[in-house]
Amino acid sequence: MANEKFDFSAGLKKKVFIAFAIGAVMLLVGGLFPQTNEHHGDDHGSDHATEEHHDAGSDSHGDDTHSYNGAEDFEAVTVADSAEAGEEHGAGWFKRFKVDLWINNVYFTGLALIGIFFFALQYAAQAGWSAYIVRIPLAMGQWIVPAGILMLLTWFFVNHDVFHWTHSNLYDPTDSHYDELIAGKSGFFFFGEGGGFPTFFIARMVIFFVLWAWLFTKLKNLSLAEDELGGDGYWFKMRKWSAIFLVIFAVSSSVSAWDWVMSVDTHWFSTMFGWYVFASWWVTGLAFITLVTVLLKEAGYLPQVTSNHLHDLGKFVFAFSIFWTYVWFSQFLLIYYANIPEESVYFVERFLSDKYSPFFFINIILNFIFPFLVLMTRDAKRLNVFLKMVCIVVMFGHFIDFYLMMTPGTMGQNGFFGFTEIGMFLMFGSAFVFVVLRALSSYALVPKNHPMLGEAKHHHI
Q1: Half-sphere exposure of 403 (CA within 13 A, CB side)
Q2: What is the pLDDT of residues 384-401, one digit of tens each?
Q3: CB 51, CB 167: distance < 8 Å
Q4: Are 375 and 312 in contact (CB under 8 A)?
Q5: For burial by CB atoms within 10 Å, which of 117, 294, 355, 442 has the most?
Q6: Contact 283/380 with Cβ under 8 angstroms?
């Protein structure tokens, strides 16, 4: 079975296209019947609504005239500010469409990145147990080039609606919308004073995707060359290039999280945010790898993969669901305990808002409580039905997580979760699955000259 190849059959392609079509129909229905909490009759345009909200916020940052007498007063004031923000955002369905487009770009870019990361990690760590499944995360990396193109094009399409800091009048001291706090961050977005084209921001995006795509291509070519030629030389080269990728990934993944997610809430920041986004990406990627492995086995592929390998994958999903919760709770608890207004407002908008508070708790249930309880036992990690159930829930749960990260900061109280969000997710997911399965069908499912195949064969826990 060393030359076993996945057959991306016409029937399977048809199912993927049907899923894409269902998503497109749901997106169309969402556009025709937008269920938003839009504040009708206000005079705020969609381009400047966000500016006015954050300009008001910047005034409170710029002086110390506001005081809060305890948690109750602070809660009352910030809830009022959050409600006012919802009115001023004044966003309709088209803005919601743009926000969802950006959320899905970030989510599926993370899946591609985690595929490369998982692949590189196995070689850098000289792991043997995973030798039979490393081609699955390698196939996930195939999305990185389409993701880079989509990310760049999408940014030019959505920038003013998603990123408040792109409005040039925020950096002009003579303008009524001048924001001293955002202007102070202009060096991070621009190569100088703010207000022009965000060269530094775009340069980082392009450089990161070029590096990721180049290193992915290098790793893939070495892996395929090892299939043809064998020899220990390729093993050592793979380890070297994997280590290089891991170092670059450590920096670029955090910075991209600041750029693409945290800068949506321009006034707010968290020193843990890079870790938080990584944790969400990581456990989602593990769930996808596990799900594909289980489905391939059920389809008659990967006979070498045993319940021991599945157990390890289940342990990864279980353990890093807890890790994500640890990072989430650490960030939340520090901000809650300090009770500093400019930090706490992030959670006030999500935890105390009628619009987002249900998702706040759904997020914890889907991404921690459910996988923790279901995968707690040894047997559950070895049974396909439990693994599939948990992986699907976790993947959707972390989409909710990214929705919560970005929608309140862009849509205010006009955010909504419905046909538009699910339809966009299905369309992106179908395209991602198509690229992954097509890549899987282009080479052997198992690297036949991998030096750790013997260790993988005798893997037992």
Answers
A1: 26
A2: 999 999 999 999 999 999
A3: yes
A4: no
A5: 117
A6: no
